[in-house]
Design brief:
Length: 384
């Protein structure tokens, strides 16, 4: 759930996107072009390619990317296409190169881990062939808090541009040193925008997330934040916990009992501890929620116009995992249930959009962050 501006609530009903924008091939292709091939994309965790020569493949629609760690520990990314006749460079999805070389499986053109072409085959290349002009196509890469990012555009936007918070917002969680204790992978039958729209409002919370609504009273009222409350005073005077942000009284984390499952991240400030959840969103592919004892990272990528993949990591400090008896189960169970509820309702949304392809929905005052998401898509030229 994102946070809005100073006066976030919409003062008029505004149209949503045309239903066709959620399933038509042309619309999807335009979004791939304007969003997914132009913005920074989170491909996973640094720990997945921690050692020199480790690699993994990543794919956004038809674009394959080879991510690797070179001998100096630098993260590198290349378009997964050999400069000879275009073959994919690796048969395996992940692994570790036996030596500091990428050998194309087709005719064995060989590149070093910096992407330079070393060898072209049995015979020497013909006179005039410029090896330097036939290196792998490099892509911009970044690491942030232990997350790997690349951009399919060689001239990427500023890295911070996709974030709704300062890049330092989660520094206290020391996520680069945290490790994933559990990963869930989900494929949802919905357009990727449906997922982000659902993330950006809590109107659905009372009906879709009964347990979460008890843990976070303001969500139980269908509001993202207390400042969205049209008239908080009478309820506050009556002691209604649904007038303030944060978890219900006595709860510390997103678990069935509200208890934390491990020690708190030591660097958290009082406000972050009180909040119980701190959201950072990096459109279009990642959001991270910092709780006092764990952080939840949800990565998203479109597999097609009506199919979206989610990868959820439950990140804990290394020391927590090493503690005897440590069990992330309650956190995984609670947050997993919420995600499952969101996944199911997103699929319900998608089915209905399909049934009325010429329709256009309408956004209510509380859906200001959905509107912001649409504005972003418009600014990027992904929709009209
Ligand atoms: S396509 Fe890669 S070596 Fe021929
Ligand atoms: Fe939800």
């Amino acid at each position: 759930m994102a946070t809005g501006g100073d006066d976030p609530v919409l003062h008029a009903a505004v149209p949503s996107l045309p239903a066709r924008a959620y399933f038509e091939a042309d619309a999807h292709e335009r979004e791939l072009r304007r969003i997914w091939r132009r913005h920074w994309i989170c491909a996973g965790r640094s720990e997945e390619i921690a050692a020199a020569r480790e690699f993994r493949q990543y794919r956004i629609a038809d674009r394959g990317v080879l991510l690797l760690r070179d001998e100096q520990g630098e993260l590198r990314a290349y378009l997964d296409s050999c400069r000879h006749r275009g073959a994919s460079l690796c048969a395996d999805e992940r692994g570790r190169f036996a030596r500091a070389a990428i050998v194309c499986p087709y005719h064995a053109w060989t590149y070093d881990l910096q992407g330079r072409l070393l060898r072209t085959g049995a015979r020497p290349p013909p006179a005039g062939f410029d090896r330097n002009a036939h290196g792998l196509w490099p892509l911009p890469v970044r690491e942030w808090n232990g997350f790997l990012f690349f951009c399919l555009d060689p001239d990427p936007p500023p890295f911070a541009a996709g974030f709704d918070q300062p890049l330092e917002r989660l520094d206290a969680w020391r996520l680069a040193d945290s490790v994933s204790a559990h990963r869930t992978v989900l494929t949802i039958a919905c357009n990727w925008k449906v997922f982000w729209e659902n993330y950006n409002e809590c109107l659905h919370c009372p009906g879709v997330h009964p347990e979460l609504s008890r843990l976070v009273p303001i969500y139980g009222r269908g509001l993202l934040e207390a400042r969205d409350d049209p008239d908080p005073r009478p309820r506050a005077a009556a002691g209604d916990p649904g007038t303030r942000d944060g978890l219900r009284h006595g709860a510390r984390s997103w678990t069935p009992t509200g208890e934390a499952v491990g020690p708190e991240f030591p660097g958290l400030g009082a406000a972050d501890r009180r909040a119980g959840h701190v959201y950072v969103t990096a459109l279009p592919s990642l959001f991270v929620v910092g709780h006092v004892d764990y952080a939840r990272a949800v990565r998203l990528r479109p597999l097609g116009p009506e199919t979206t993949e989610l990868r959820v990591d439950f990140l804990f400090p290394r020391e927590a995992l090493a503690t005897p008896g440590f069990d992330p189960g309650p956190a995984v169970a609670f947050a997993g249930r919420v995600l499952g509820e969101d996944a199911a309702i997103c699929e319900t949304n998608q089915r209905g959009l399909r049934a009325a392809p010429d329709a256009r929905g309408v956004l209510m005052p509380e859906e200001y962050a959905v509107r912001s998401f649409h504005d972003w898509l418009r600014t990027e030229g992904a929709i009209d």
